[in-house]
Design brief:
The protein is α/β, with parallel strands linked by helices and 264 residues long. Helices cover 22% and strands 20% of the residues. The longest helix is centred in the C-terminal third of the chain and has 17 residues.
């Protein structure tokens, strides 16, 4: 047993996409963590750069433990990401409290991803002026999955559901999110406002006639209006182009997407 104040070591191994958070030379290999005393395994994991919300299972010397497990000398720690289809019971599944609905909260740098999610009909809030503390609190209070490119934001202790978006291109980001959260098949394109996230509802043409360009009103009878910002939408050439883009994204994510004639 080490003397008081003496440094001890534990060996860590991170699996699957958790390696995305490690320097390239440290991926897929055993890593040594030196420590004094008996720190929590959660703190040790995050010292490697891995946010706790991305971790679903920790094995200490082959035994399932939670984030409060205290490291001991010569421990061997295996850290696994959130499982989508593998049943890890009766192990301690650390992200085992599923949300009742799939709703997202995105930081301001993911505005274009938020627009994609809304076009597909997913609840995606993206506030413009909230700091990290308020974003984390909103994620918990509103039961939203926090999406961000900021790894440090995901390390905030109060967070329970979050994900670090790997891709940088918005088109690649939406495919990544659809796959990661198994959303293909749950989409409802053109049911949310892409600007404010409000729900769209059909509105009688006569009620909004003064807001419709005369050339459009002459040939189109169906319109929808945002319940939050009151913006008006209709199926013009822009709608058809978006429908094709949505179909391509869904196909790339793993299933055939809706055609341009999908209901709005």
């Amino acid at each position: 047993m080490p003397e008081a104040g003496a440094a001890s070591q534990a060996t860590f191994r991170f699996y699957a996409e958790l390696n995305d958070f490690l320097p390239e030379g440290n991926r897929q290999s055993e890593l040594i963590h030196a420590f004094i005393g008996s720190p929590r395994v959660k703190d040790a994991i995050e010292s490697f750069g891995v946010p706790h919300v991305e971790v679903d299972l920790i094995l200490a010397n082959g035994i399932s433990v939670d984030f409060d497990y205290r490291l001991g000398a010569d421990d061997r720690i295996a850290v696994y990401p959130v499982f989508e289809s593998v049943n890890v019971s009766p192990a301690v599944r650390l992200q085992g409290r599923p949300l009742r609905r799939t709703a997202f909260l995105l930081d301001v740098h993911l505005r274009r991803l938020a627009r994609w999610l809304r076009l597909l009909g997913f609840d995606a809030s993206c506030p413009r002026d909230e700091d990290d503390a308020r974003l984390a609190r909103r994620s918990v209070d509103e039961g939203r999955i926090l999406l961000t490119r900021d790894r440090e934001l995901l390390k905030r202790g109060e967070l329970t559901h979050g994900y670090w978006v790997r891709a940088t291109d918005p088109r690649r980001q939406i495919v990544e999110i659809l796959r990661r959260f198994d959303l293909v098949g749950d989409e409802r394109p053109f049911t949310r406002c892409p600007t404010c996230n409000g729900l769209l509802a059909e509105v009688p043409k006569g009620e909004v006639l003064e807001r419709i360009p005369p050339r459009t009103a002459a040939w189109l009878d169906r319109y929808v209006r945002c319940s939050s910002c009151d913006k008006l939408f209709w199926q013009g050439t822009h709608h058809a182009r978006l429908g094709r883009a949505i179909a391509e994204v869904l196909a790339e994510a793993g299933a055939a997407g809706p055609g341009a004639d999908q209901r709005s």
